[in-house]
Amino acid sequence: MATIILTLNRGSSSFKFALFRAGRGEPRLLARGAAEDIGGATGRIWLQDAGGALLEQRGRKFRNAAAVPGAIFLALGRHGLPAPTAVGHRLVHGGARYLRPVRLTAAVRARLKQAVPFAPLHLPAELAAIAAVTKVFPALPQVAVFDTAFHAAMPERARQLPLPAAMLGRGVHRYGFHGLSYEYLVHRLGAKRLGRAVLAHLGSGASLTAVDHGRPLDTTMGFTPAGGILMATRSGDLDPGVVVHWLRQSRKGADELEGIVNHQSGLTAIAGHGGDLRQLLARRRQDPRARLALEMFCDRVRQQIGAFTTVLGGIDSLVFTGGVGEHLAPVREAICAQLGHLGVRLDRRRNARHAGVISAAAGPCTIFVVPADEDLMIARHTAVAVRRRMGR
């Protein structure tokens, strides 16, 4: 008997969702959509079929997250789609305890609340989504799938931070994020085909991961998603002395600093008016600050590709994914422009048309562009967890 799985990906003011039928083989997409501007004045819900055709789009004000699961179920029902028999949630962090997908019992939910200090900007909203589903559909099996899980297999030299044992004992180490995206790339392309690979998830949040035949060796994000390369609004890695200096000078403390490094830094701080790379590309010729932001972003990505090539002992493939990685050909070209000595050689015409392979035919490194599909990985893990619970 097939399991109908609803995947939920909770954002700060949105629910992205997808519906899958999971049987013996790969889960099959039935529909996907989103509920947006939760708590705002311009709320709406939209739904597409598996081929991307719009089934509905309607205004719907959501007072809070608790109203969303019921609205999603109603939208699915209006178009004759089957009711979910299980729900899979993407959680950005499971703390030090949860590094694999887990069935959401009351005890697990209570322990996840204790993990909120690991991801205070993300986990509260994600736990609220779980509570909302539980309230409306208390008997529905729910599974948590963690964005940190993929990186749990990294060697200790990559996971450990050079800090006193007292801090390490509290779960302070490098976790890595965007794990579902990276897991999908390995699943889609295959570990053998990837070989020694650098995977680049580039969007408003951005990171890179070094993978040797499917096994993660290192990643850029660390204890939190704010680490690594600079992003749209996040600083990326900082000299710890900057943090100490700021805390000594400020009277507002850690909460304000958290807001600065997560929401007021990165490309936004450099450009001075937003960190959307599409807008920076459009303004780069007449705006020196936009040009500088672009140059810094591409430099940091290039530097990290070079560093990871050393970790891997060479590079067989480079994979771009995420909103920027998939859609902004000029950014991909700028990143690859100075990597020829590593065998990274771009075909400009393939790149301009966003082909699946954009490397030059004679290049020793294959450059891929792969659309992310985190929903599929959530559905796969949820199906396995539900079958295990049922003893199948």
Task: Give an overview in words.
- This protein has an eight-stranded mixed beta sheet, sandwiched between helices. A five-stranded mixed beta sheet has the order 11-10-9-12-13, sandwiched between helices.
- It is globular, with a radius of gyration of 21 Å.
- Helix 6 crosses helix 16 (374-390), helix 11 crosses helix 12 (288-312) and helix 12 (288-312) packs across helix 14 (329-336).
- It has 392 residues and is of the alpha/beta class.
- It folds into two domains: 3-146, ATPase, nucleotide binding domain (Nucleotidyltransferase, domain 5), CATH 3.30.420; 191-369, ATPase, nucleotide binding domain (Nucleotidyltransferase, domain 5), CATH 3.30.420.
- It has 16 helices and 13 strands.
- Strand 10 (206-212) and strand 11 (215-219) form a beta hairpin.
Task: Describe the secondary structure blueprint for this structure.
Elements: E1 3-10, E2 14-22, E3 28-36, E4 44-49, E5 54-59, H1 68-78, E6 86-91, E7 102-103, H2 106-114, H3 123-136, E8 142-146, H4 156-159, H5 165-168, H6 179-189, H7 191-194, E9 196-202, E10 206-212, E11 215-219, H8 240-249, H9 254-263, H10 266-271, H11 277-283, H12 288-312, E12 317-321, H13 322-327, H14 329-336, H15 348-352, E13 366-369, H16 374-390
